[in-house]
Amino acid sequence: MKADLADLNAFLAVAQARGFRDAARAIGSSASTLSEAVRRLETRLGVRLLHRSTRSVTPTEAGTRLIERLAPALGEVEAALDVVNLFRDRPAGTLRLNVPVSAARLVLPPILPGFLAAYPDIRVEIVAEDGFVDLVASGCDAGIRYDERLEQDMIAVPIGPRVQRFATAAAPSYLDARGRPTHPRDLLGHACLCARFTSGALTSPWEFERDAELVRIEPQGPLIASVAGAVDLLVDVAVAGGGILHLFEDWLRPALESGSLEPVLPEWWQSFSGPFLYYSGRRLVPPPLRAFLDFVRG
Protein backbone atom coordinates (compact mmCIF):
# COMPACT_ATOMS: atom_id res chain seq x y z
CA MET A 1 0.00 0.00 0.00
CA LYS A 2 1.52 3.30 -1.12
CA ALA A 3 1.40 6.41 1.09
CA ASP A 4 2.43 9.93 0.18
CA LEU A 5 5.78 10.87 1.74
CA ALA A 6 4.49 14.35 2.62
CA ASP A 7 1.53 12.83 4.49
CA LEU A 8 3.87 10.54 6.42
CA ASN A 9 6.07 13.49 7.37
CA ALA A 10 3.00 15.45 8.43
CA PHE A 11 1.79 12.62 10.66
CA LEU A 12 5.22 12.24 12.27
CA ALA A 13 5.51 16.00 12.91
CA VAL A 14 2.09 16.12 14.60
CA ALA A 15 2.79 13.02 16.68
CA GLN A 16 6.15 14.34 17.88
CA ALA A 17 4.78 17.82 18.64
CA ARG A 18 1.65 16.37 20.31
CA GLY A 19 -0.47 18.90 18.48
CA PHE A 20 -1.33 20.30 15.05
CA ARG A 21 -0.55 23.94 15.83
CA ASP A 22 2.84 23.22 17.42
CA ALA A 23 3.74 20.93 14.53
CA ALA A 24 2.70 23.56 12.02
CA ARG A 25 4.92 26.16 13.68
CA ALA A 26 7.82 23.71 13.79
CA ILE A 27 7.77 22.84 10.08
CA GLY A 28 6.40 26.09 8.65
CA SER A 29 3.00 24.78 7.59
CA SER A 30 -0.57 25.31 8.72
CA ALA A 31 -2.62 23.30 11.18
CA SER A 32 -5.37 22.76 8.63
CA THR A 33 -2.89 21.44 6.04
CA LEU A 34 -1.47 18.97 8.55
CA SER A 35 -4.92 17.90 9.72
CA GLU A 36 -5.95 17.15 6.15
CA ALA A 37 -2.71 15.22 5.52
CA VAL A 38 -3.23 13.04 8.60
CA ARG A 39 -6.88 12.44 7.73
CA ARG A 40 -5.86 11.46 4.20
CA LEU A 41 -3.23 9.04 5.55
CA GLU A 42 -5.70 7.46 8.01
CA THR A 43 -8.23 7.01 5.21
CA ARG A 44 -5.65 5.38 2.96
CA LEU A 45 -4.47 3.02 5.72
CA GLY A 46 -7.96 2.35 7.04
CA VAL A 47 -6.97 2.85 10.70
CA ARG A 48 -6.97 5.75 13.16
CA LEU A 49 -3.44 6.91 13.96
CA LEU A 50 -4.08 9.77 16.40
CA HIS A 51 -6.41 10.37 19.34
CA ARG A 52 -7.58 13.98 19.06
CA SER A 53 -9.06 16.11 21.83
CA THR A 54 -9.39 19.83 22.41
CA ARG A 55 -6.32 19.72 24.66
CA SER A 56 -3.97 17.15 23.20
CA VAL A 57 -3.11 14.82 20.37
CA THR A 58 -1.66 11.39 21.18
CA PRO A 59 -0.85 8.40 18.99
CA THR A 60 -3.12 5.37 19.02
CA GLU A 61 -1.52 1.95 19.38
CA ALA A 62 -1.38 1.69 15.59
CA GLY A 63 0.09 5.18 15.40
CA THR A 64 2.75 4.31 17.97
CA ARG A 65 3.76 1.22 16.02
CA LEU A 66 3.98 3.29 12.84
CA ILE A 67 6.13 5.95 14.52
CA GLU A 68 8.59 3.31 15.74
CA ARG A 69 9.25 2.22 12.15
CA LEU A 70 8.61 5.50 10.37
CA ALA A 71 10.94 7.88 12.24
CA PRO A 72 14.13 5.90 11.47
CA ALA A 73 13.00 5.27 7.89
CA LEU A 74 12.32 8.94 7.15
CA GLY A 75 15.63 9.81 8.77
CA GLU A 76 17.37 7.48 6.35
CA VAL A 77 15.50 9.01 3.42
CA GLU A 78 16.56 12.51 4.47
CA ALA A 79 20.15 11.38 4.97
CA ALA A 80 20.14 9.80 1.53
CA LEU A 81 18.85 13.01 -0.05
CA ASP A 82 21.47 14.99 1.84
CA VAL A 83 24.15 13.10 -0.09
CA VAL A 84 23.37 15.48 -2.93
CA ASN A 85 24.91 18.22 -0.77
CA LEU A 86 28.29 16.62 -1.34
CA PHE A 87 28.12 18.04 -4.87
CA ARG A 88 27.47 21.57 -3.64
CA ASP A 89 30.11 24.13 -2.83
CA ARG A 90 28.69 24.49 0.69
CA PRO A 91 26.82 21.97 2.87
CA ALA A 92 23.12 22.68 3.22
CA GLY A 93 20.17 21.21 5.06
CA THR A 94 18.97 20.82 8.62
CA LEU A 95 21.01 19.68 11.62
CA ARG A 96 18.88 18.38 14.50
CA LEU A 97 20.57 18.15 17.91
CA ASN A 98 19.13 16.69 21.11
CA VAL A 99 20.89 18.24 24.10
CA PRO A 100 20.45 18.60 27.88
CA VAL A 101 19.28 21.98 29.12
CA SER A 102 22.71 22.63 30.63
CA ALA A 103 24.38 22.16 27.23
CA ALA A 104 21.89 24.50 25.56
CA ARG A 105 22.78 27.09 28.19
CA LEU A 106 26.51 26.54 28.69
CA VAL A 107 28.02 24.57 25.78
CA LEU A 108 26.35 25.66 22.57
CA PRO A 109 26.31 29.49 22.89
CA PRO A 110 30.08 29.84 22.26
CA ILE A 111 29.87 27.41 19.30
CA LEU A 112 26.70 28.06 17.32
CA PRO A 113 27.20 31.70 16.23
CA GLY A 114 30.50 30.87 14.52
CA PHE A 115 29.09 27.71 12.98
CA LEU A 116 26.00 29.44 11.60
CA ALA A 117 28.16 32.20 10.16
CA ALA A 118 30.49 29.66 8.53
CA TYR A 119 27.62 27.58 7.09
CA PRO A 120 24.75 29.94 6.17
CA ASP A 121 22.92 27.20 4.21
CA ILE A 122 22.55 24.99 7.30
CA ARG A 123 19.63 25.38 9.69
CA VAL A 124 20.10 24.06 13.23
CA GLU A 125 17.20 22.73 15.31
CA ILE A 126 17.81 22.24 19.04
CA VAL A 127 15.69 19.94 21.22
CA ALA A 128 16.61 20.54 24.87
CA GLU A 129 15.66 17.78 27.32
CA ASP A 130 17.43 15.77 29.99
CA GLY A 131 15.94 12.31 29.55
CA PHE A 132 17.46 9.35 27.71
CA VAL A 133 16.65 9.62 24.02
CA ASP A 134 16.85 7.24 21.09
CA LEU A 135 18.41 9.56 18.53
CA VAL A 136 17.27 7.58 15.51
CA ALA A 137 13.68 7.24 16.70
CA SER A 138 13.54 10.92 17.71
CA GLY A 139 14.65 12.05 14.26
CA CYS A 140 17.77 13.83 15.57
CA ASP A 141 21.14 13.64 13.86
CA ALA A 142 23.23 13.85 17.01
CA GLY A 143 23.04 14.58 20.71
CA ILE A 144 25.09 15.96 23.56
CA ARG A 145 25.43 14.01 26.78
CA TYR A 146 27.99 13.28 29.48
CA ASP A 147 29.95 10.04 29.32
CA GLU A 148 27.92 8.21 31.97
CA ARG A 149 24.73 8.86 29.98
CA LEU A 150 25.92 8.10 26.45
CA GLU A 151 23.93 5.60 24.45
CA GLN A 152 25.67 2.39 23.47
CA ASP A 153 27.18 1.86 20.02
CA MET A 154 27.60 5.58 19.47
CA ILE A 155 30.55 7.59 18.21
CA ALA A 156 31.45 10.29 20.75
CA VAL A 157 33.39 13.49 20.05
CA PRO A 158 34.41 15.92 22.83
CA ILE A 159 32.56 19.22 22.70
CA GLY A 160 32.77 22.26 24.96
CA PRO A 161 34.87 22.55 28.12
CA ARG A 162 36.71 19.36 28.98
CA VAL A 163 36.52 19.94 32.73
CA GLN A 164 33.56 21.37 34.60
CA ARG A 165 32.64 21.76 38.26
CA PHE A 166 29.55 21.77 40.40
CA ALA A 167 29.45 24.86 42.58
CA THR A 168 27.54 25.45 45.79
CA ALA A 169 26.41 28.97 46.64
CA ALA A 170 23.96 31.10 48.59
CA ALA A 171 23.16 34.75 49.07
CA PRO A 172 25.33 36.54 51.67
CA SER A 173 22.13 37.54 53.49
CA TYR A 174 21.11 33.88 53.85
CA LEU A 175 24.54 32.86 55.13
CA ASP A 176 24.63 35.78 57.57
CA ALA A 177 21.31 34.63 59.00
CA ARG A 178 21.81 30.84 58.94
CA GLY A 179 25.57 30.46 59.23
CA ARG A 180 28.27 29.34 56.81
CA PRO A 181 28.76 25.57 56.41
CA THR A 182 32.29 24.31 57.09
CA HIS A 183 31.67 20.71 55.97
CA PRO A 184 29.25 19.23 53.37
CA ARG A 185 27.27 17.48 56.12
CA ASP A 186 26.43 20.90 57.58
CA LEU A 187 24.16 21.37 54.53
CA LEU A 188 21.72 18.89 56.07
CA GLY A 189 20.70 21.67 58.46
CA HIS A 190 20.10 24.22 55.70
CA ALA A 191 17.38 25.07 53.19
CA CYS A 192 18.61 23.42 49.98
CA LEU A 193 17.14 24.39 46.62
CA CYS A 194 16.80 21.21 44.54
CA ALA A 195 16.28 20.27 40.90
CA ARG A 196 14.32 17.44 39.36
CA PHE A 197 14.86 15.75 35.98
CA THR A 198 11.96 15.48 33.54
CA SER A 199 11.86 11.77 34.37
CA GLY A 200 10.76 12.73 37.88
CA ALA A 201 14.03 11.79 39.60
CA LEU A 202 15.74 14.32 41.82
CA THR A 203 19.27 15.37 40.89
CA SER A 204 20.40 14.35 44.39
CA PRO A 205 22.64 13.31 45.96
CA TRP A 206 24.89 16.34 46.02
CA GLU A 207 28.49 15.17 45.82
CA PHE A 208 31.55 16.86 47.30
CA GLU A 209 35.19 15.86 47.10
CA ARG A 210 38.38 17.01 48.80
CA ASP A 211 41.66 15.12 48.64
CA ALA A 212 40.64 11.46 48.96
CA GLU A 213 37.35 12.11 50.75
CA LEU A 214 34.03 11.86 48.88
CA VAL A 215 30.87 13.00 50.64
CA ARG A 216 27.31 12.53 49.35
CA ILE A 217 24.33 14.18 50.96
CA GLU A 218 20.59 14.02 50.29
CA PRO A 219 19.55 17.69 50.29
CA GLN A 220 16.29 18.80 51.86
CA GLY A 221 14.64 22.11 51.28
CA PRO A 222 11.60 24.23 50.52
CA LEU A 223 11.82 24.29 46.71
CA ILE A 224 12.16 21.73 43.91
CA ALA A 225 12.20 22.91 40.29
CA SER A 226 12.43 21.12 36.97
CA VAL A 227 15.82 20.97 35.28
CA ALA A 228 14.02 21.28 31.94
CA GLY A 229 12.95 24.88 32.38
CA ALA A 230 13.11 26.27 35.90
CA VAL A 231 16.78 26.26 36.84
CA ASP A 232 16.93 30.04 36.53
CA LEU A 233 14.10 30.18 39.08
CA LEU A 234 16.30 28.28 41.54
CA VAL A 235 19.09 30.81 40.96
CA ASP A 236 16.71 33.75 41.46
CA VAL A 237 15.39 32.27 44.72
CA ALA A 238 18.95 31.67 45.94
CA VAL A 239 19.91 35.27 45.10
CA ALA A 240 16.85 36.44 47.04
CA GLY A 241 18.09 34.57 50.12
CA GLY A 242 15.86 31.52 49.84
CA GLY A 243 18.51 28.85 50.36
CA ILE A 244 21.64 27.09 49.15
CA LEU A 245 22.03 25.99 45.53
CA HIS A 246 24.24 23.29 43.97
CA LEU A 247 24.65 23.73 40.21
CA PHE A 248 27.11 23.99 37.32
CA GLU A 249 29.77 26.56 38.21
CA ASP A 250 29.43 28.20 34.77
CA TRP A 251 25.69 28.64 35.35
CA LEU A 252 26.33 30.41 38.66
CA ARG A 253 29.36 32.39 37.50
CA PRO A 254 27.54 35.70 36.76
CA ALA A 255 25.94 35.71 40.23
CA LEU A 256 29.22 34.71 41.88
CA GLU A 257 31.16 37.42 40.07
CA SER A 258 28.57 40.08 40.93
CA GLY A 259 28.57 39.05 44.59
CA SER A 260 24.84 38.33 44.64
CA LEU A 261 25.82 34.74 45.48
CA GLU A 262 28.66 33.70 47.77
CA PRO A 263 30.65 30.49 47.27
CA VAL A 264 29.90 27.78 49.84
CA LEU A 265 32.52 25.09 50.53
CA PRO A 266 34.55 25.95 47.36
CA GLU A 267 37.39 23.66 48.48
CA TRP A 268 34.91 20.77 48.18
CA TRP A 269 33.59 21.56 44.70
CA GLN A 270 33.75 18.44 42.55
CA SER A 271 35.19 18.41 39.02
CA PHE A 272 33.92 16.15 36.24
CA SER A 273 34.69 15.56 32.58
CA GLY A 274 32.97 17.67 29.96
CA PRO A 275 30.25 16.61 27.50
CA PHE A 276 30.42 14.72 24.21
CA LEU A 277 28.67 15.12 20.89
CA TYR A 278 27.48 11.64 19.94
CA TYR A 279 25.91 10.12 16.85
CA SER A 280 25.21 6.74 15.31
CA GLY A 281 28.08 5.11 13.45
CA ARG A 282 25.62 2.86 11.64
CA ARG A 283 24.06 5.60 9.55
CA LEU A 284 25.35 7.74 6.75
CA VAL A 285 26.60 10.99 8.31
CA PRO A 286 24.60 13.78 6.62
CA PRO A 287 26.58 16.80 5.37
CA PRO A 288 25.22 19.24 8.01
CA LEU A 289 26.41 16.93 10.80
CA ARG A 290 29.73 16.34 9.06
CA ALA A 291 30.23 20.11 8.84
CA PHE A 292 29.39 20.49 12.53
CA LEU A 293 31.79 17.70 13.51
CA ASP A 294 34.58 19.35 11.52
CA PHE A 295 33.78 22.72 13.11
CA VAL A 296 33.79 21.31 16.65
CA ARG A 297 37.05 19.47 16.10
CA GLY A 298 38.49 22.74 14.87
- Class of the largest domain in CATH? Alpha Beta
Q: Termini separation (Å)?
A: 47 Å
What low-confidence regions span 5 or more consecutive residues with pLDDT below 50? none
CATH topology of the largest domain: D-Maltodextrin-Binding Protein, domain 2
Structural class call reads alpha/beta
Give the count of structural domains. Answer: 3
Give the % helix: 25-40%
Gyration radius (Cα, Å) is 23 Å
Morphology call: globular
Mean pLDDT: 87
Describe the sheet with the most strands. Answer: 6 strands, mixed
Give the helices and strands as they follow along the chain. HHHEEHEHHEHEEEHEEEEHEHEEEH
Work out the strand percent.
Answer: 15-25%
Task: Please characterize this protein's 3D structure.
The protein is an alpha/beta fold. The chain folds into 3 domains: about 1-70, Arc Repressor Mutant, subunit A (Orthogonal Bundle), CATH 1.10.10; about 90-160 and about 275-298, 3-Layer(aba) Sandwich (D-Maltodextrin-Binding Protein, domain 2), CATH 3.40.190; about 165-270, D-Maltodextrin-Binding Protein, domain 2 (3-Layer(aba) Sandwich). Helix content is about 40%, strand content about 25%. The protein has 11 helices and 15 strands. The chain has helices at about 5-15, 20-25, 30-45, 60-80, 100-105, 110-120, 135-140, 170-180, 230-240, 250-260, 285-295; strands at about 50, 55-60, 95-100, 120-130, 140-145, 155-160, 165-170, 190-195, 205-210, 215, 225, 245-250, 260-265, 270-275, 275-280. Strands 7, 8, 11, 12, 13 and 14 form a 6-stranded mixed beta sheet that branches. A hairpin with a 4-residue loop joins strand 1 (about 50) and strand 2. Helix 2 (about 20-25) crosses helix 3. The longest helix has 22 residues, at about 60-80. The termini are far apart. The mean pLDDT is about 85.
